[in-house]
Design brief:
mainly alpha, 0% strand, flat, 4 helices, single chain
Length: 77
């Protein structure tokens, strides 16, 4: 009950971020490229947050958390 409103706001922001994600066509082009690659990588990052995901290995977790908090807080307005 104490965090219920905040949880709903954050959930709404996450859903909005998902709606703003890459188009199915862009994902399909990537899948086609992967299929046609002789030696595909194990993982591929795609989407608006893919850069941050890649940086997670190089920057402290606290900074990643601050970036995510600011990103989703700005989407709550």
């Amino acid at each position: 009950p104490v965090y219920q409103n905040r949880f709903k706001e954050i959930l709404k922001a996450v859903e909005e971020a998902e709606r703003k994600g890459d188009s199915p066509e862009k994902i399909a082009r990537l899948v086609e490229r992967i299929i046609n690659t002789e030696s595909p990588r194990l993982r591929y990052r795609v989407g608006p947050s893919s850069t941050l995901i890649g940086l997670k290995h190089f920057i402290p977790e606290r900074i990643v958390e601050k970036i995510m908090t600011r990103y989703y807080s700005s989407n709550l307005k």
